[in-house]
Amino acid sequence: MKKHQKKENAIIYLNVYGEGVLQMKKRRFFIRTGILLVMLAALCYTMYNSVFAKQDRVKEGSIAPNFVLQSVDGERIELKDLKGKGVFLNFWGTWCGPCKQEFPYMANQYEVFKDRGVEIVAVNVAESKIAVKNFMESYGVNFPIAMDKDRQVTEAYDITPLPTTFLVNPEGKVIKVIKGTMTERQIYDYMNLIKPKGS
């Protein structure tokens, strides 16, 4: 009787132990499969970015993608409306040190070139109107500020870092991309480069 009981206990133990091991193996299988799928998705995303995203990047010689944004005062700004003018397209932020440095230079040169067929469109990246208006007052901004609240235009132009400036000629083609801050002399030369012929 005791031997029979021991045998039954041993069988029950083996069954329970076997089920536990099986469940652990199943759990391990699902965890490994999950990790593998995450790694595969990350690999696919990286490959997609390296193959396709770079092809879509706005670069020198490409047509500047059109966009429609609102100014800080609620007016509509559409890039294609400025065709026939040179466009100094600048992406910036109020927190950006180099932006603070170059904005007064841009304001000075805008006074020189605004009647010679050059327009500045300064695209603010995802900040509040209050922050932008305070900045404009502090730095004497006299040119249009476009508000890219949801970063759609910033992402379309693949902006890193701030500031980044695109020189767009009167035909709508990007002729130069400048990453980082500019001196006042450089801004003068760049605006001179994109002004319409005969201006």
Could you characterize what this model shows?
This protein is α/β, with parallel strands linked by helices and 199 residues long. The protein has 2 domains: 1-56; 68-194, Glutaredoxin. Helix content is 50%, strand content 19%. It has 5 helices and 7 strands. It has helices at 2-56, 97-113, 129-139, 152-156, 184-194; strands at 68-71, 76-78, 86-92, 118-125, 145-148, 164-168, 174-179. A 7-stranded mixed sheet has the order 2-1-5-4-3-6-7. Strand 6 and strand 7 (174-179) form a beta hairpin. Helix 2 crosses helix 5. The longest helix has 55 residues, at 2-56. The radius of gyration is 30 Å and the shape is elongated. The chain starts with a helix and ends in a 5-residue tail after the last helix. The model is unreliable at 44-55 (pLDDT under 50).
What name does CATH use for the topology of the largest domain?
Answer: Glutaredoxin
Number of domains: 2
The H-level CATH homologous superfamily of the largest domain, spelled out, is Glutaredoxin
Determine the structural class based on helices, strands and strand pairing: alpha/beta
Spatial order of the strands in the main sheet? 2-1-5-4-3-6-7
Shape: elongated
CATH architecture of the largest domain: 3-Layer(aba) Sandwich
Helix content: 40-55%
- The top-level CATH class of the largest domain is Alpha Beta
Strand content: 15-25%
Instruction: Work out the helix count.
Output: 5
Average pLDDT, rounded to a whole number, is 86
pLDDT under 50 segments (min length 5)? 44-55
Strand segment tally: 7
| Cα-atom radius of gyration | 30 Å
Distance between the amino and carboxyl termini: 112 Å
Q: In this structure, how is the largest beta sheet organized?
A: 7 strands, mixed
